[in-house]
Amino acid sequence: MKKFFVYGLLASTLSFLFANATFAQNYVTPEPDYCLNQYNESTNPYYDFEFLGSKRKLNFKKGEKAEVTIYIKNTGSLPMFSDESECTKFRPITRLGTARERDRSSILFGHLPGWQSPNRIRLDQKRLNPGEKGSFTFVAQMPQEEGIYREYFDVVLEGKQWINKDFAINFDIGEYTSENRDYLKYINTSKRVSKEDLNGEKLIEVTIATQKMRLKVGDIVIREFPVSTGTYSHPTPRGHTRIILKQQVRVAGKWPHYIMPKWLGFRAGGYGIHALPSLSFDNGYYWTEARNHIGTRKSHGCIRLLPKDAEFTYNFASVGTQVWVR
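^ that's the sequence the OP posted. Answer follows.
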């Protein structure tokens, strides 16, 4: 009798295990064909996009709720999937995220259509294939204070990566214009810009103690760059002057005839702001050495900049732009 009982118990146990094993096997859901990447094995898998533009009103009223659409093109080799896609358990969700500063709460956020959170906007298309154009549509809550609000955005694959190709959209609150709206191209953070800011004068400010240069429009700091000013024996003159001369390249009249690109002369006597100097006969040695000196007092009185910083400064400044050396 005990033998039959043991056999029966064993059979019941095995039946239970097999039933659960079958259940576990059936529980695994294969990825639907709709969610597959569908690219050749020889193709490099990557995400990328191109910002195409936006659709919005030219001017908004204070506190207005208004629809905004931002257009992109999928220039990567992988498809993008939205919150509404049935593929999000297999693929990362694609959203538009706030940038500069990244992941901060947008001043345009409201509990309104299109927003997933205060710093995320949903993709309109369930699936956006490589080469296709897509969009992010949302309703923005405009602030109560007039101004031009610059918002930076970037595409983010949640839990995987940011694309790191952020772009800016301007939102004009109030009916006004400014003669100096071109200054907006220098604003590289998400912020509000007032009429007073836009009408401010350009200024180049150099602090010798910190070896830093700041480019400003009114009170707005546009950029900050490291510099190399004059040595203690050949100091950079302090005080207030203005740019008196712009030259793409200046060659010093005295030996050894330094070559100084992006020249901005700011004081008589040969003092200028310029890119790293070089010599025509040393195979680039002096230029390399000068690069290592950025951030220290090493020039003969000029203000040296790294090449990209000098190009930006050259394009920013005009003859007459204020210069303060402190």
